[in-house]
Amino acid sequence: MPSLFEPVQAGDLHLANRIAMAPLTRNRAPDAIPTPLMATYYTQRASAGLLITEATAISPQGQGYADVPGLYGTEQLDGWKRVTSAVHAEGGKIVVQLWHVGRVSHTDLQPGNAAPVAPSAIRAHTKTVLLKDGVPTFTDTSMPRALDLGELPGIVQDYRHAARNAIACGFDGVEIHAANGYLLDQFLKTGANQRTDDYGGSIRNRARLTLEVVRAIVDEIGGGRTGIRLSPVTPANDIVDENPQQLFDYLLAQLAPLGLAYVHIIEGATGGARELADRPFDYAALKAVYRKAGGKGAWMVNNAYDRALADAAVAAGADIVAFGRPFIANPDLLARLEKNAPLNEPDRATFYGGGAAGYTDYPTLYCDGKFRSKVAAALVHKALTAIE
After folding, report:
1. Neighbour tally for 30: CB within 10 Å
2. Residue 5 CB partners (closer than 8 Å, separation 6+)
3. Distance between CA atoms of 329 and 261, rounded to whole angstroms?
4. If we measure between CA atoms, which residue out of 138, 147, 139, 137 comes closest to residue 115?
5. Distance (Å, rounded) from C-alpha 193 to C-alpha 7?
6. Residues 305, 308, 309, 315: is their CA dihedral positive or negative?
């Protein structure tokens, strides 16, 4: 029986273990530019088999939160090069999560203070993060406008271009963010998509944009370096679908022939209950549909996993288990899980925005946070020197 701590192949990615660090928005990239502190943060966590970066905007229009990174400007790419070099110097593997927020945004964050875009002009009853007097503040999202049909090819090209940039920055691959009520998930689901053209109505039409994006990225960088994240039933960001099982069975059957590195599934409500009484879903059946259709990508599971649940998931056939919030306070989560050691408690007040506090100063099993930060900083300096 495979173990969490054994290597696994995910497409072109050979991972040292079956533990992934899930994407975690931390709002520490002013002007959307990755910082040296971010390089330290990811390097500290490089013992994970796979690091998946925080969600990263593919374009200015794709931005939805203050101080989240982008992947479309020269300074942004230079910043990410420092991150990937530092992680690779530590022996880690890292992919970037490609993100367009769609309607989960605010006019203050959009170019020219324009309205956010969406499949339909339906407001998301959720919050985004703005900086007010330098302080991250949760704020209601703005009313979006519906995207014109002629705008959709440009969005597909933005994804393609971001994937190309990712490889140029040294990332080992990309993860397409099609979950948690953001743009691609909005097109997939009936609660946000009321279009009457080729991108709305039927399941086939609602899945069209996501499949166009995936195929464009696979064409650009190869399926073996491409993953996708999906959340069939999460209510995150005011999203819902009237028939999620049928929708995602169709989508996974279409993804199967594309040779993806992995499929990343959020089970239940993101960051919440793993089962929702009003949104039942059969994840085993979904995986069976994917495998029956020829899908060979690694199957990654996520949401509220601990060591016992992760062991059970791997025993039941999951290839990779993604941990999110435990990685915030435990940069050495791999070692702690392997030794069944207690976990540090995170400082929730520092989740979104700030500096090193609650970001790179958590202690490890073997040395205190200050020393560990110095070690990581030395690795970052070595990587920066190598690429200058």
Report:
1. 12
2. 17, 18, 19, 334, 338
3. 28
4. 147
5. 40
6. positive
Determine whether 352 is an active site residue.
Answer: no
Q: What is the pTM of this model?
A: 0.94
Ranges of each domain in the chain: 8-387
How many whole angstroms separate alpha carbon 314 and alpha carbon 303? 14
- Give the residue from 147, 155, 113 showing the smallest Cα distance to 130: 113
Report the C-alpha dihedral over residues 300, 301, 305, 311, rounded to 10 degrees. Answer: -60
| Greatest distance between any 2 Cα atoms in the chain | 59
pLDDT at 366: 82
Cα–Cα distance for residue pair 362/340, rounded to 1 Å: 18
Report strand pairing: 135-140 vs 145-146: unpaired
Q: What percent of the chain clears pLDDT 90, i.e. is strictly above it?
A: 92
Catalytic residue among 72, 182, 262, 290: 182
Length of the chain: 388
Question: Using CA of residue 153, residue 241, residue 53, residue 136, what is the dihedral sign?
Answer: positive
Q: Are 180 and 234 in contact (CB under 8 A)?
A: yes
Residue with tokens 């479309």: 72
Query: Was domain 8-387 assigned CATH 3.20.20.70?
Result: yes
How far does the chain reach from its first CA to its final CA, in angstroms?
45
> pLDDT band at 135, cuts 50/70/90?
confident
Q: What is the 3-state secondary structure (H, E, C) of 317-366?
A: CCCEEEECHHHHHCCCHHHHHHCCCCCCCCCHHHCCCCCCCCCCCCCCCC
Contact, 255 vs 215, CB < 8 A? no
